[in-house]
Structure formats: structure tokens, C-alpha cells
């Protein structure tokens, strides 16, 4: 998995949780919105344990500018774990990442119970929207 070039990766759930409580926020956003690629950190479950997701939520168009993709790519979730640090990358078939898209994506990740390491494609193809 391609690790995000965000600010320092975090793995301590307690530290992030305390910080988010102090700030009265649900996630730590490291990018201004709206953007084509947003970096953030949020707490969720992975294999039955609370983890900090060091996440990059991006449009498929942004992803395609940096990596080779199919002519009509699917949305994807890509999960990697390195030294107990959880990395998440989500590619969405939308024109821009705004607050609503970001929060829907966080909710989707938190609700999905069978997240696994690796890349998983899903949903509508980009040219069918």
C-alpha cells in the first residue's frame, strides 16, 4: 500500500481520543476542504479493536493522476498496517472531497465490520455516474 504523505502517523487511540474530546471534534483533518485529496485521522474498529485510521480520502481522478488505473476504475478501499499503525486510503468517484463526503466515508468505514488488509474495489464505475 502507498503510505500517505501526511503529518506524522499516529497509532495511540487514547492520545487521539483525548485530543478530539478537547477539540470537540470527531476526526482530525489535516487538509482544507474542499479538495481532491484529504488527509485525516479518526478512530474506528479493525479486527475487533479500536485503532487510529491514518487516512487519505481522494477522488478517483486525483488517484489516476499519480497511479495507473483501468479505463473505467471502480471506487476502492485500501488498508495497510505497518508497525501497528493503520493506514487507510479510499478512492471515490466524486468530483471533489467536501465535508459531507468525508463524513459519509468515515461513517462507512466505522460501520463496515469485515475490513481486511489489502485493496478492495466496490461500487459504481466512474463513467456510469
Short description:
With 129 residues, the protein is of the alpha+beta class.
Topology:
Layout: H1 13-23, E1 28-29, E2 37-46, E3 49-59, H2 60-66, E4 74-82, E5 85-92, H3 99-111, E6 118-125
Parallel strand pairs: 3-5
Antiparallel strand pairs: 1-2, 2-3, 4-5, 4-6
Descriptive account of the structure:
- The chain has 129 residues and is of the alpha+beta class.
- The protein has helices at residues 13-23, 60-66, 99-111; strands at residues 28-29, 37-46, 49-59, 74-82, 85-92, 118-125.
- It has a 6-stranded mixed beta sheet with strand order 1-2-3-5-4-6.
- The longest helix is centred in the C-terminal third of the chain and has 13 residues, at 99-111.
- The protein is globular and about 45 Å long.
- The mean pLDDT is 89.
Instruction: Compute the number of helices.
Output: 3
The residue fraction in helices comes out at: 10-25%
User: What order do the strands of the largest sheet run in, or round the barrel if closed?
Assistant: 1-2-3-5-4-6
Major sheet size, sense and barrel closure: 6 strands, mixed
Q: Terminal Cα separation, in Å?
A: 27 Å
Query: What is the mean pLDDT?
Result: 89
Strand content: 35-45%
Structural category? alpha+beta
Low-confidence stretches: none
Spatial shape = globular
**Strand count:** 6
Using the CA coordinates, give the radius of gyration. 14 Å
| Element-by-element helix/strand order | HEEEHEEHE
Key phrases:
single chain; alpha+beta
Amino acid at each position: 500500500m502507498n503510505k500517505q504523505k501526511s503529518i506524522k502517523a499516529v497509532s495511540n487511540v487514547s492520545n487521539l481520543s483525548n485530543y478530539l474530546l478537547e477539540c470537540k471534534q470527531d476526526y482530525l483533518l489535516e487538509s482544507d476542504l474542499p479538495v481532491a485529496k484529504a488527509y485525516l485521522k479518526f478512530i474506528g474498529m479493525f479486527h475487533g479493536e479500536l485503532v487510529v485510521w491514518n487516512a487519505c480520502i481522494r477522488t478517483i481522478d486525483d488517484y489516476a493522476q499519480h497511479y495507473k488505473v483501468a479505463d473505467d476504475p471502480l471506487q476502492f478501499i485500501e488498508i495497510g498496517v505497518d508497525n501497528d499503525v493503520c493506514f487507510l486510503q479510499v478512492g471515490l468517484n466524486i468530483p471533489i472531497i467536501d465535508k459531507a463526503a468525508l463524513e459519509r466515508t468515515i461513517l462507512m468505514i466505522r460501520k463496515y465490520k469485515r475490513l481486511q488488509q489489502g485493496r478492495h474495489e466496490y461500487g459504481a464505475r466512474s463513467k456510469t455516474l
